[in-house]
Write a structure and sequence with these properties.
alpha/beta; seven-stranded parallel sheet; two-stranded parallel sheet; 9 helices
Length: 263
């Protein structure tokens, strides 16, 4: 395991009480993504360090072994290649579900608009229905993008947002907003569901071919050997290091008392 990533994960274990997961099972969708990969690796390490016997099921549209090959033979880890838009049924019963499957890169969700919408809405509903039947807990990975053109950064959870339903990023932002509404409906009928609005996540695992600003910056620095600014550089944004992200996501899932959190 990369030493930087291992250090991150060890700090996760120091900052999250994971005893609630003892002998439990957890489904992580989007297991190939940056957040999903780190969460699964943290749980894998928790099993190794603390013998928690957590059963981890990772699901991704792309082969999860691409990013999790070093743990694929672990008896507590099961990795599926599955497009949840086509099939979100599972034979297993889960105690916890973390729904992180989505297209987060603009270039990706602009190429897959309807699938992006369905992942955040239709699939969210089906997974929540599974939670309702099995009395499971659910964490919906939302986004700070749901605020649209925010008046203040960092943005408080009380801000309702300023979004257009028809602008180019709407398939992502509006489906995340509706995903949160679906979560609230299931919360009303007793499902233990929480929403985490993640800021822009960065850290080990970001591709230099990722068109978002950090990946683009690294590409220019490492490949082109030249960094050019495309605007005045005065735009503000909230950023989130992946190690801190996983700490907060797991704390929200296991110990959170509120419904919606900015992360």
């Amino acid at each position: 395991m990369n030493s930087i990533i291992e250090g991150d994960l060890l700090r996760v274990l120091e900052r999250v009480e994971l005893e609630k997961l003892l002998n439990k099972s957890i489904l992580v969708t989007g297991s190939n993504g940056l957040i999903g990969t780190y969460i699964i690796m943290a749980l894998y390490l928790a099993n190794k360090k603390h013998n928690l016997n957590i059963r981890v099921i990772g699901v991704s549209k792309n082969d999860p072994n691409d990013t999790l090959s070093e743990i694929r033979d672990d008896k507590n880890i099961t990795l599926y290649k599955k497009n949840l838009v086509d099939d979100s049924e599972f034979d297993e019963k889960f105690d916890y579900i973390i729904h992180a499957a989505t297209y987060a890169q603009p270039v990706k969700f602009l190429e897959n608009k309807l699938e992006t919408i369905k992942l955040n809405t239709v699939v969210t509903e089906k997974l929540l229905d599974t939670c309702k039947k099995n009395n499971s807990s659910f964490l919906f990975i939302s986004s700070s993008e749901i605020y649209g053109h925010a008046e203040k950064i960092p943005t408080p959870e009380t801000y309702n947002g300023n979004c257009s339903t028809t602008y180019d990023r709407a398939p992502y932002t509006e489906s995340k907003r509706l995903g949160e509404t679906i979560c609230s409906v299931f919360k009303e009928v007793g499902v233990d569901v929480k929403v985490a609005r993640g800021s822009s996540v960065y850290g080990p695992g970001i591709s230099i071919y990722d068109k978002r600003v950090i990946g683009n910056f690294l590409n220019k620095a490492l490949i082109k050997k030249s960094i050019d600014l495309l605007d005045s550089g005065r735009q503000e944004r909230a950023w989130l290091y992946i190690g801190d992200c996983v700490v907060m996501m797991l704390n929200i899932l296991l110990h959170g008392k509120s419904f919606i959190y900015n992360v």
